[in-house]
């Protein structure tokens, strides 16, 4: 579904990603862990070309993301749902309007069609009753679920999550993870950067450990958490506990 081959990224003279290879199969949830500054966000951002890869290739469903330009790139980006730490909702628009907007503007859906889909997705994340609220009236966890609904409304082939719960108060984290778990159970293909190790153990098919811009180790949650092979991963995990 998503294939990253020999991805390299430099900012000026600084190389932040080196020879990243990652394959995500349809319906798989790949979890990415690693210390701050290890290149996790940069890797996700390269996937929809928010960052331009220095070299390497990225394919989505067999199509080269890295060779798309202009309109084709816009279209490709719609197939890659992104959810960030901050929610980036329009503060003066209602929740419903937030979930409709890109559908109308980018997918050219009619307003009734976009509205129906928005309502369906809000229902999905448990927020149908907040459709006419503005983001400021919602908790952080609810806002993040709106952001997830907005991404899902565009019918992405893969969803990329960059620390979706890091900005949330601890008591709100669970509601967002629950929505993500449900998506996984429904067969969505997902790449999740997060520090929620319990969630990784429960929900991940595979865990990838990055450090210093390289994939140091990857394996099942049992392998990564139960039997870490590299010294770097062992050190990282021991700092968490
Ligand atoms: P992570 O998400 O794992 O914390 P990042 O991908 O954000 O790591 O960052 C990896 C490295 O790339 C860091 O050293 C960071 O300072 C650097 N970096 C990220 N974005 C930029 C940028 N736009 N310009 C220069 N350096 C950057
Ligand atoms: Mg990051």
> Number of helical segments?
9
Residues in β-strands, percent: 15-25%
Biggest sheet strand order reads 6-7-8-3-9-10
- Please write the string of helix (H) and strand (E) elements: EEEHEEHEHHHEHEHEEHH
| Mass-distribution shape | globular
Number of strands: 10
Largest β sheet strand count, sense and barrel closure: 6 strands, mixed
Give every kind of bound small molecule, once each: adenosine-5'-diphosphate, magnesium ion
Measured as a percent range, the helix fraction is 25-40%
Oligomer: single chain
Rg value: 18 Å
Structural class: alpha/beta
Average predicted local confidence, pLDDT: 95
Spans of 5+ residues with little confidence (pLDDT < 50)? none
| End-to-end C-alpha gap | 34 Å
Main location: membrane
GO molecular function, one term: ATP hydrolysis activity
Domain ABC transporter: 2-237
Keywords: Amino-acid transport, ATP-binding, Cell membrane, Membrane, Nucleotide-binding, Transport
Write the layout of secondary structure elements.
Elements: E1 2-11, E2 14-24, E3 29-33, H1 40-47, E4 55-60, E5 63-64, H2 70-78, E6 80-83, H3 95-105, H4 111-124, H5 140-152, E7 158-162, H6 170-185, E8 189-193, H7 197-203, E9 206-211, E10 214-219, H8 221-226, H9 231-240
Parallel strand pairs: 3-8, 3-9, 6-7, 7-8
Antiparallel strand pairs: 1-2, 1-4, 4-5, 9-10
Helix pairs in contact: 3-4, 3-5, 4-5, 5-6
Bound molecules: adenosine-5'-diphosphate (ADP) and magnesium ion.
């Amino acid at each position: 579904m998503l294939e990253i081959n020999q991805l390299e990224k430099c900012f000026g003279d600084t190389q932040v990603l080196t020879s990243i290879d990652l394959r995500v199969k349809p319906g798989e949830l790949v979890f990415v862990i690693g210390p701050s500054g290890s290149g996790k966000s940069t890797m996700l951002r390269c996937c929809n070309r928010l960052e331009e890869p220095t070299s390497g290739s990225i394919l989505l469903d067999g199509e080269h993301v890295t060779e798309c330009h202009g309109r084709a790139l816009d279209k490709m980006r719609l197939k890659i749902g992104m959810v960030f730490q901050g929610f980036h909702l329009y503060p003066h628009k209602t929740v419903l309007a937030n979930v409709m907007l890109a559908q109308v503007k980018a997918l050219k859906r009619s307003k009734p069609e976009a509205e129906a889909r928005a309502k369906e997705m809000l229902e999905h994340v448990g927020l149908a009753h907040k459709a006419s609220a503005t983001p400021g009236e919602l908790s952080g966890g609810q806002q993040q679920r709106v952001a997830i609904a907005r991404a899902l409304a565009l019918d992405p082939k893969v969803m990329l999550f960059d620390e979706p719960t890091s900005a949330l108060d601890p008591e709100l984290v669970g509601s967002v993870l629950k929505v993500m778990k449900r998506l996984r159970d429904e067969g969505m293909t997902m790449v999740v950067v997060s520090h929620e190790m319990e969630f990784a153990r429960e929900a991940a098919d595979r865990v990838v450990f990055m450090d210093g811009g390289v994939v140091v180790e990857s394996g099942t949650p049992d392998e990564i958490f139960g039997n870490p092979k590299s010294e770097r991963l062992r050190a990282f995990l021991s700092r968490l506990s």
